[in-house]
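>> received
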Amino acid sequence: MGESITYVGLDTHKATITVAVAKGGRDGEVRLHGRIANRPAAVERLARSLAERYGRLRFCYEAGPCGYGLYRQLRRLGHDCIVAAPSLIPRRPGDRVKTDRRDSLKLARQDRAGELVAVWVPDVEDEAMRDLVRGRAAAVAAVTRARQQLQSLLLRHGVVYDGGTRWTKRHRRWIAGLCFEQPAQQFVLAEYRAAHAEAEARRDRLTGEIERLVPGWTHAALVAALQAMRGVALVIAATLVAEIGDFRRFAGARQLMAYLGQVPSENSSGERVRRGGITKAGNGRVRRVLTEAAWTYRSKTGTGKTGTGAALKRRRDALPPAVCAIAAKAEARLTARFRHLLAAGKLRPVAVTAVAREMTGFLWAIANAVESPQAASRRPEPTAAPAI
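>> returned
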């Protein structure tokens, strides 16, 4: 028999980590070890002390705001470690007491029983790109918020633009020429205009940094391949790769759809079958950009940078024929699907959600066709629990 594994549950917080230990075997002792500071030196002392006492260790803690630094440190020290998906940790309905002590004991016990599901942990470079695309998404939200505040101010005072589409050059000149009689209101208008300009500048700076860094990224080939799809330009492609990570960890396209929360919810029992809207259980950022991209399939010919014009043709010219064939098949399928759903009386949001779900399947096929050997070699080692 191999060396017995001792399971260590860590309930992590900003300042402290509560530690519980579960000895190997079905009837092994599960006990509280204590509390340490959430600092690298304290974690190293803990790992060394437990290794001297128990031998082989396997650590686990919940994914949360403290990130993956603890995971990487424990792996560097030579110990096995998983980061558990919080939404998939089993919880008893009657359990109404939650403390750090109970949480750490439960983690150690459930990891020993194989009941925890590990999340996929990105490496340092991938996490940095994820932070970059999330920073841009926050900047885009700030632009939207600044525009809403400015337009709300104008609407409250009956100043309405009737010259057509907003935020065009003409609309911006109109806003720049506005003036209120009251000095206080004029000051607020100037502040809102300045906030909007700064938000747009920050968004543009982050976009430029994505464009600069993606060509040197390990997943640059995958980002380029995903752009063969209509509706998927550089920023959306980089977001998909940074947020999803290794596409090959999903056994099939349906598994990826479920991971992103795009599949219908269901509450069936006996002969009753009841399905509802999509679960929305996965990554909301990915679901949002996929829905944004899916809108381009509402017509046979797309428009702009993500449509079927010269920009899309240039992107496809540099890609392998197999990738372009998948993208062409997707374009024919998804445009027909969008028209069919609308003809059947489905609301546009319902139709675009269905198209986004099918689009995920084509993206998975492209990713599996082109993912680099380097990315596959960097895939996390398998653990007792499947990574999601």
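>> Residues 124-156 form the longest helix (33 residues).
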